[in-house]
Design goal:
globular; 30 helices; mainly alpha; about 750 residues; about 0% strand
């Protein structure tokens, strides 16, 4: 098939001397940051250098590489109507202001991964993780999100699994559908478990997060009914109410209402399942989009203030650039060598398969113009990557001895500050028992020992930075608990959006059997699919909070690998579509990150299945505990022989599922390769499921801020900065804005 022609556009202006000077300066700042990170050894460096390396790299990537992909590779077409415009029904399909949609998309994809993954990966030093976070997002993660969003938009917002079935074929497509949906349920349950652990017995967190729901409903009605299109107004109102709810949460925690908002884990599970179902079935403009947009102010605002705190306080990186655990592979936080496990552990900050589900779920049904895929797909992922960089900084500015005391399991550090101090010394680091006790006292916690999972470490690092700027040591406890609440808010938006995406996915699957399910807003299908999805992740979550070795706790070890395998499916589908649509010479854009992801993830899968080290291999762990049962011994973390049997079962299930997921992904990739070769050799046989071109009547900017040309077009169409349908005069061609280049964005 010949390469598609670019949509008509006027000649693009080159870089001016002023812009060349600005971008040269940006490049120099980024290069200076990288130089210091790469060359400094055996000395503490300022965390500000990491900020410089990250921000400089992100700016260059967004301005040049993302624009290259949008214009040259994808050839985005602003004259083509999106599904949101063509199929607008006010429920799932709804043209949404790009600023609100950016907030929704970012909130939906930014879950636990960018907060906790880098914290855990810091075990191997700050340099390996930082390189992967920045380089990975530029060339893999943001590319996947953007390209998936583009191709799904061209297919009426089809889900990733359904696109695989339509474009690769029934065999590979069926494998993709099964793998994607099963992985989706596991990911949602894991994210929900993190929220439950953060919010249980926290009246401040429960109240503040609970209040975001009525605030979001108010914002939705305000934008839809009371003051349509007034995004700035509703943003000011929403943020003011959000800040008030956060402050009020502290008042509630100290009042007689505290008991009312102090919830047990089981109660939280019930409320989360109910909320997930309601958020999935309500019109997207009413709750989901405004709540995600609202939470983005909290997320981005907090991270921006954290970065500002780094610039003001200039904390130093106390963790080594590369630790001995990177080569030995025997770290206490997680076992395994730097390759492949740093890349698996960090996941969401650099490349996340979960993102492809949102990019082929809610977002393509709401995007106004194809030209916005750069800002929303690529830009939101860069923003999440910056969150991961801040998490890495938070983990590495605290004393390494304290870091390992917090993140090592109880079997390593014991239960007392004395035993923890000795255990940390055995790892090659030093911290006194008094220092461990004081660290816990500063944040008003009984103990910080073995607070594994990454979230407490991030909160501690965040409190170090904020207290250095505002309040001193006396404010550490406040900032620590604020950070815990912030993390729960960060993750909850992923669960509600993920449930809706899972509903779309299940409806697409069932639509292959019963066609009415393909109508994603068909009410029986909406209610049935939503119930199945929340029932799936809700079951694993319910069992998990009541049984430390059951439910989602059983499947938790699969989280990282499953997420990266999902990314392999997305990149395989994108590469196939690039080739089938006549873009063979650009297939490397997704093909190279696909090859890297497959190499990393299948290597990790192989080691998790076949490694003889019981700390790494599932079946080796099974054999170890089975031998303990045969010898009538109880091995930690088991506390009884019944627990020993449960560990054996869990290890067996995890090993089998790891093998099954890896096989399914290999089938998808092999079938995709067959389709690609056929398309290359016989382009005349290619069939695409892309919907025909329909002329767009909607006008909207491509970037966050309209260009001069876009401003002229909006004025000619009688519209404000949010865009909308052209006036009658403009539709007749009276607008002088019709000559704006299709690829023009906020460069």
């Amino acid at each position: 098939m010949p390469e598609p022609e670019a949509p008509p556009s006027t000649p693009r202006r080159g870089l001016t001397p002023k812009s060349i000077a600005i971008w040269s300066l940006v490049a120099l700042v980024g290069a200076a940051g990288w130089g210091v990170l790469a060359l400094s050894r055996g000395e503490e460096i300022s965390a500000a250098w990491m900020l410089a390396a990250a921000l400089g790299s992100y700016a260059i990537a967004y301005r040049f590489y993302a624009l290259f992909i949008a214009r040259r590779v994808l050839k985005v077409d602003k004259t083509r109507a999106t599904p949101a415009e063509r199929l607008d029904n006010g429920v799932d399909f709804h043209p949404t202001d790009r600023r609100v949609l950016f907030g929704h998309h970012f909130a939906a994809v930014a879950g636990a991964g960018p907060l906790v993954g880098p914290v855990l990966a810091a075990q191997m030093g700050y340099l390996p993780g930082t390189i992967w976070i920045i380089v990975g997002v530029i060339f893999a993660g943001a590319v996947q999100d953007m390209v998936t969003l583009f191709f799904s938009t061209r297919r009426n917002g089809r889900s990733l699994g359904q696109m695989a079935r339509d474009e690769i074929g029934p065999f590979g497509g069926a494998a993709a559908l099964i793998a994607v949906f099963a992985i989706m349920i596991i990911l949602l349950a894991v994210l929900a478990l993190v929220i439950v652990n953060a919010l249980s017995h926290s009246p401040w967190g429960v109240f503040s997060i609970g209040m975001t729901i009525p605030i979001a409903l108010l914002m939705g009605v305000y934008l839809r009914v009371l003051r349509p299109g007034r995004v700035t107004e509703v943003s000011v109102i929403g943020v003011a109410l959000l800040l008030l709810s956060i402050v009020a949460g502290g008042w509630v925690a100290e009042s007689s209402w505290a008991d009312t908002f102090t919830l047990e884990p089981g109660t939280l599970v019930v409320w989360m399942v109910v909320y997930g179902f309601v958020a999935s079935v309500l019109p997207v403009w009413m709750l989901l989009a405004p709540r995600d947009y609202l939470s983005t102010f909290m997320k981005v605002g907090t991270i921006a203030l954290l970065a500002l705190g780094v610039v003001i306080a200039l904390p130093t990186m106390k963790m080594d650039a590369v630790t001995d655990f990177a080569t030995r592979g025997d770290g206490p936080v997680f076992a395994g060598s730097m390759f492949p496990f740093v890349f698996i552990t960090i996941a969401c900050g650099a490349l996340s398969g979960f993102h492809s589900l949102v990019s082929s779920g809610t977002t393509p049904k709401m995007i106004q113009k194809e030209t916005q895929v750069r800002m929303i797909g690529y830009g939101a992922m860069l923003t999440e990557s910056f969150v991961a960089i801040m998490a890495m900084i938070a983990a590495c500015i605290i004393d390494p001895g304290l870091y390992f005391a917090i993140n090592s399991p109880g079997g390593v550090v014991g239960t007392t500050v004395q035993s923890a101090s000795e255990a940390v010394a055995n790892l090659g680091f030093t911290i006194t028992p008094d220092a461990l006790a004081q660290a816990a006292k500063d944040v008003e916690e009984a103990s910080l020992l073995s607070r594994t999972g990454g979230a407490p470490t991030f909160a501690l690092g965040m409190s170090e930075i904020f207290s250095a700027v505002i309040g001193g040591v006396g404010m550490k406890a406040f900032w620590y608990h604020f950070a815990i609440m912030f993390e729960a808010l960060f993750i909850l938006t992923t669960v509600d959006a993920g449930t809706r995406v899972g509903r779309f996915m299940l409806q697409d699957m069932l639509g292959n059997v019963y066609k009415p399910f393909r109508q994603v807003s068909w009410k029986p299908g909406v209610w049935f699919a939503s119930a199945v999805v929340v029932g799936g992740w809700g079951y694993f979550l319910w069992v998990g909070v009541h049984d430390p070795l059951g439910g989602i706790n059983q499947l938790f070890p699969l989280f990282g690998i499953a997420n990266q395998l999902l990314a392999a499916v997305a990149l395989a589908v994108c590469t196939t579509l690039l080739i089938k649509s006549g873009r063979l010479k650009w297939a490397w854009v997704t093909g190279v990150p696909l090859a890297w992801d497959v190499a990393v993830t299948l290597t990790a899968s192989w080691q998790k299945i076949f490694s003889e080290d019981p700390r790494v291999g599932f079946f080796a762990q099974r054999d170890k505990y089975q031998a303990g049962i045969d010898a009538d011994k109880v091995l930690p973390p088991a506390k009884s022989l019944d627990d020993m049997h449960t560990v054996v079962t869990n290890s067996t299930v995890d090993g089998i599922l790891s093998a099954l997921f890896a096989i399914l992904i290999v089938v998808v990739i092999a079938d995709a390769a067959r389709v690609c070769l056929k398309a290359i050799n016989n382009p005349e046989t290619v069939r695409l499921s892309e919907v025909p071109h329909t002329e767009s009547k909607l006008v909207a900017p491509a970037g966050m801020f309209p260009t001069q040309e876009e401003k002229a077009e909006l004025v000619a169409a009688g519209l404000g900065s949010g865009g909308g349908l052209r006036t009658i005069g403009a539709q007749r061609g009276e607008s002088h804005g019709d000559d704006v280049p299709a690829g023009t964005g906020s460069a």
